[in-house]
Amino acid sequence: MKTHSLDTGGAGEEIFLIVDLERFRGPLDLLLHLIKQQDIDIFEIPISKITRQFLLAIRSMSVEQIDNAGEFMEMAANLLRIKARMLLPNSTMSGDDDPRAELVYRLLEYEQIQEIRAHLSVAESQRSRQFGKGFVSPINRIEKVEVILDTTWDEVYAAATSVTVPSVNIVEHKVTTRLVAMEDKVDLILLTLQRLKRVEFSGLLKPFESKMHGVMTLLAGLELARKRKVKLRQAKAFSELWMYRVSESSPEAVKSQLNPSEG
Q1: Is 193 within 8 Å of 245 (Cβ atoms)?
Q2: Which end of the chain, N or C, is less surrounded by CB atoms within 10 Å?
Q3: SS3 content of the chain, % helix, strand, coil (to 5)
């Protein structure tokens, strides 16, 4: 245990502080001890005075304590940095600009943790005097009460008749149109061109409403044009498509030429 004569800042006034580094858990613990022993306002820490006392305390560290010296030296460097910032011109000493603000926050947080730790330690010692180690308080079990069920047939019948039958969901039935064969559209085009020299594409679609008829009619016309059985003509883009007759061949002969494998 080391005893140091620490100057409090008054003229010739000195006090003796007993500083035993072995009982401090770190630099914050030592710093908080110095502040409390001298009744210093934690929001108005005299950095120069506290730094001298802090450095004097860590100078007495023995060789066995050298492993923990790094944390104390870091705190001493932080105190010197704060003092240097306070000596700079135009430095403010209030609000968030105060160089001591971060240190004060750390000290208050550490002090709160120490108070919680002390409170838990007292609660632990009080409990150990009342209960042994590993004691678990018994769970209050709720007593089971036997309930006698007495149901009559009238009640069963009333419950059965109160059940409502779920309504049957109406299933929508969709009728899909049958597939449109391209051979039918070939017949339609050729038979129409037997009567007329030319026909509009839209005229071939008037009796039908399904889009599939339009697609298959166009494919049939393109196939006949490829076989040079009809001519397709369009004045400009998106204008009416016309189909013209080329030969006088019968629809059966043309179809046999389109599908030679069926012959």
Answers
A1: yes
A2: C
A3: 55, 10, 35
The answer, yes or no, to whether residue 64 has pLDDT greater than 80, is: no
End-to-end CA distance of the chain: 120
Tell me the backbone φ, ψ of residue 113, rounded to 5 degrees: -65, -40
Architecture of domain 182-262: Orthogonal Bundle (1.10)
Two tokens at 28? Answer: 């914050």
What distance separates the 2 farthest-apart alpha carbons in the chain? 135
Q: Return the bridge partners of 233, or none.
A: 242
pLDDT tens, 78-135? 888 887 888 777 655 555 577 788 888 888 888 888 889 888 888 888 888 887 777 7
Give Cβ neighbours of residue 179 (< 8 Å, ≥ 6 apart).
Answer: 212
Instruction: Name the band, by pLDDT with cuts 50, 70 and 90, for residue 2.
Output: very low
DSSP 55-87: HHHHHT--GGGGGGHHHHHHHHHHHHHHHHHHH
